Amino acid sequence: MQERGIDAVPGAPVESTVCVDRSRPRPVVSVIGALDTSGAALLSAMLDHVRRTEGRTVVVDLTRVDYVDSHGLAPVLDVDVTVCGASPSVTRLLELLGRPLPVTARGAGLLGVPALSGPRAH
């Protein structure tokens, strides 16, 4: 199927938005919409920007991702990224990949921002 000249999976969104919320004690990068190969490129660029300007682990909120594939999820599997929330689609893919799932981490230095449970495998 083609939408606006782009190959697309039927029913899958073809757009994504990546933004940074700097109103919290730590910036939180949020993804809205699809997180596939093109969304991954946009997310990677934003993560690189936040790393350069903040110089620390990046917090990512994926609660509003309505479509995800393994290519899209790849940028958040880096050791310096903490996922603070995940949609059911993201949660399912994290489970399939055997990755830790986001849970609320009190006292984790994120001031109430949920974090991944457990260490990350490499």
From TrEMBL:
A family per Pfam: STAS_2
Gene3D superfamilies named among the record's database cross-references: STAS domain (3.30.750.24)
Span of domain STAS: 28-79
Matching SUPFAM superfamilies: SpoIIaa-like
Domain of life of the source: Bacteria
Protein name per its UniProtKB record: Anti-anti-sigma factor
